[in-house]
Every structure is written in structure tokens, then in C-alpha cells.
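User: I'm curious whether this sequence folds into something compact or stays loose and floppy. Could you predict its structure so I can see for myself?
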Amino acid sequence: MNIYKKIRIALIYFALISIIGAGCKQSFLNELNPSNRTTDNYYVNAAGFESLTTSCYPLLRDIAQQRALTFPGTDVFAAGGWGAVYYNQPNPLGSSYDQYDIRLNASNGELQTLWDFLYREINRCNAVVSRAPAVTDMTDDLKNVRIAEAKFLRALCYFWAVQQWGDIPMPLVETTTASLEVTKIPAKDIYTQIINDLTESIPKLPPTPKDIGRASQGAAQFLLARIYLTRGWNFNNSLGGTAADFTSSLQLCDQIIGSGLYPLESNWNNLWPLHNINPNKETATAVSSVATCNKSKEVIFAIQYANAASYQGDPSVGTSTIGNDMHGRFGGGPSGVAQQARTSLYNRFLNGQTCTWAAYRLFDPALDARYYSTFNHVSYATTTGSVSLATNKPFPQTLTLSYIAGDTTAVARPWNSPVTTAAQRGVDIQGGTKKYSVINPNEYMGLGYITGTTPIVDVLAGPAPMFWKFFQPGITYGDGYSTFNDPLFRSAEVYLMAAEAIVKGATGGVLGTADVYYNKILDRALGTANAGKSPMRAAAPELVNDITNLVSYRATSATITVDMILDERARELLGEGNQRWYDLKRTGTLISRGTKYNPWIGYGLAGTPLIAAKHLLRPIPQGMLDNSNPRIQQNDGY
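Assistant: Here's the prediction. I'll summarize afterward.
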């Protein structure tokens, strides 16, 4: 049943940022409500209260799709491309999220949007908690479950917000009237409240919810484990964390593992939509492609997209976000040769987040199954087409190549296996013999200059390896139509959190030392045939042409470090959970790893990196500053 048909008129709009409506003329506020249904007369019984609780879930879709503040500007993702830096384009300009320049300020639209969504969701959750006592026709046990769900979701949103902005407002009751008074609460008190919410919720939430997609006991334990892990690092000594938090995190991880409810998939590919690397040979449908991954027991909590009847997109925020858009937002698409436009074959490939060179070079393509499952190296024609090489530079030819659907149009070589002779290249290169372009790793994401300012023009130039992990075939072309449930929490991360906690001093791990937890995830990626082997990554992932300087990423009790765990988190969780920026901030490595591995961060402005300590917190959005009296204090440095 679509709950929004019942509550569309009565949905709660109020949040901290909604006070601007107080200045509207009365005539614009008059509403026709033929059913005479309001929040005060609808959320008073069991049916209305159930609708209210369910309405707390869909907004997670909108929040999770605000990725500009969680992936770009890190070691493994940049916004858009990064070729301009490496290929000597004059006065290169990238995204403010990567360059951390003056454009990343309080007026940034993504900051305002994320803030608004988070506080709108918090207010919905507060409404559940505030209105629960008035509901008398529901059993106390069920009511307590619904309150626990709301507190879990509120804790999740406050956790995201406090990591972004530090000290923030913390309303804990439903906002129903406009007010200009806003008080920032210290981050340590936000963490205390989050921990209290989750500690209260864990015993009340069911281990296995009857309704798919609702919060479970395991989901609350997972979130609490991550929060203890984060507080233990005690950013700027502002979170109230102690070394005991790492042990608390480890204990929760062991409880989740020991429950047996979330076993690791034996095959990593079962976590993702089924798809063929050649879309012309695709046999999976939109429904069949997600039949396995959406039922994976490894996933502890996922944002629902396949459950459209219960978790529709949210009309209250005027969005068309009715489905998952992960398939089209992580950058990389086929070559531009002989491609149908705007079809579901390759669907939409927007460069919202693009992998850095280093991200590819963290994997062993020969041993680690996650490499070819994450990246698609071959591009195929999807229609009949042709291309002339007459304008090719520096090797123009009187040659026209023709293609039919299914022909190979580009091959991007893996980072450790470039072709070494001209004959192995495409005919766009002098001496090449292939009908398609062959892209060596040092040509990913752009082309250089012949001499001076004369650019190379390669009419066959193909892409870097496409990000293929989330691709779902058979869905309508567009941003929001995938039915792949977005896995925010899964048990693989539990093992890596446990490993990190032990490296930071936690004791008493049920499985043993940190390397045992870490290698559990690594060996699953290697598969039965390669389990126990030592996969090799680039020792210096930031160096483009170095393919001989390698290092093993199998852990031992003597070699495991936080950086090693961050590398493994990148391989295992690349693009998941809106998490990477938080990982680097938590571990104090955002500046060091970002500067080293993200070309834009390292370049900064005119070759001078701009990222600084102030960027570990975001500026409070301008809308919040303008709508508070006394004016809320801006974060330092902005």
C-alpha cells in the first residue's frame, strides 16, 4: 500500500530551515483540505502512526543521493574528471569539492540541500517520538519498536550531520512552529545523544523485521559500532572519546558476526546487480538482475528501491527521486563510437564521482575478483556507425572505420598490463593494427599535447575503465529508475571495523588479531582457488607509470595498519554507503591521503594544495545563518 496516498496532504514539512515561510502572505497559506485531515487528527491512532513511521524511510533516498560531500575530495574519488591536471591543460579548474578552494563556502548548494534533508528527516523522527504517547490503540510492544526505528534513523542523520559540521543544533522534539532561535550543541553531546538513542533501541528492535527494509537490531548495532569507532578517534578532542570506545566497537562487531544473521556471501558478485559486460548480449531483465543481490543476507541495512509500494519517493520535497541512481553517477561510460543515445543499454553515465588513478592501482587485477567486477574495461558498439580518422592528430589517415552493434570499440588496459608495442594498439596510433582504441593506463581520463599548446585529437580515444559495480540492465534510461536496494551497511564492513578497532588498541576480539578479521574479507575476494595468496598492489598508487614497484596487501599481525585497512575499505566498499570522506576524516588521513592520491587536491590552485585543517568541517549553510537570530556561529575558517 502506498502510504503517501493517505498522508500526502498531512506530511510534515517543518524543520529548522523551514522558518522562512513565516514571512508569506496569509492568502498564500490558505489550503483546501476537503478530507479535513491534519497531522493532529491523523497521527493519533495506530493506522496514522504506522504511516508516520513509514514516512521516515523514503527520505533516506534523497539524503543518500547527495554524494558530492562524501565521495569527491577523497583519495579514491574526484568530481568529474582529473585529466586536466595530468595532461597539462592551461589553467586547469576542477571541482571545489576536490580543490578545497574559496568556492567551497556557505553558499554551496549541496551543503544547503544535505542540511535541509537531514533536518527534515530528523523532524519526522522526532514527530514519531513526540506523538507516540497519544496513540492508544497500538500495543506497547509494537509502539516501542516504531519509536526505536525512529531513534535509529534520527541517530543516523545526526551522525552524518555531526561529522560534516561538528557542533550543530539538536532538536529532540517535533518542530511545529517557526522560530528564529537556534542553539549549536557541542559535538560530544551529539555523540552522547546518538549513543543513548541506539542503546535504547537495540533491545527493542527485532533481529529480523517482518517488513523488509525496516531497521533491525543488527542495523542499530552496526551503527553504534561505527559511532564508537569514530568517537574513539576523538576528532580534535571534541567528541568525548576514549580508548574504551574502540573496545566497545569491537564487542558490537563480534556480536553482529556471532549472531549468524549476516553471513558473508561466498561470491562477492552476488551483492550486485547481474549484468553482462557486453550490453548487446544481456539476458538479465530489470527484475531478474536484482533478484539475488536484493535478498543478500550480508546486507544489514539497505535503502529500499525494490519495495516501491511501501517506500515510494518523497513528494513532500518535490523530488522525482523514485529509484536508485547509483548505476549512473560514478562516472565512466563507453567510447563515443557507434553508440545509441539515451537508451538503457549503457544507461546514463554522469561523472558525478570518478575514480582516481590510485583507486585502480590499489587492486591486483590477476587475483582480486573485485577488480573486474568493479570496472568494465571493454566498450562495445550498440548501433551501426562509422568514424573517419581524417582529423586524427598526430596521425591523420584517409581511413573510415565502420561498426555494427556488438563490435569492440575500445579496450582500457588494466593498470599493471599496458600494451608495449605499436602493433597492439588501435589504428589511431601510428603502427597500430586494431580496429578499436587500446588505452594504456597512463592515458586514462584524457590526452596530452603534441607540442606546446597543440592538443592530441584521437577520434577513437576510449574511456578509462567504466565503473560497473552498480550497473543494472533493463531499466528505463534516466537517473532514478534502478531498483537495486542501496546497501548502507553490510557485514564485510563489520570485519574491517573490528580490524581497525584492534589496531587502535581494542582487546578481546573473538576471532583473534586484526589481521584475521581483515584477511577474512580479502580471502572472500580472492576466491577459493586463490585464498591465502598474496595479492599485489602498486606500492605507490599515485605514480602513473610505475608497474613494477609492488607490495602485498595480505595482512599479518606485524604489518597491518590503519592505512592498510583504508586501502581494503576502498577495494571492498568502493562507492558504497556515502562513507569515504567520513572514513578519511575519522582516521585523520583526509589531508595526507587526499593530497597524495587525488590529483586535484594535490594540485590545489596553480600547483599549491589548499586543503587545510578547517576543511575537516564544512561551513554551516548560508540559509541556516540567514534564518537564525541571534545568528548561528559559522565554523572556523569560513
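Summary: The chain has a mean pLDDT of 91. Residues 70 and 581 are 5 Å apart (CA to CA).
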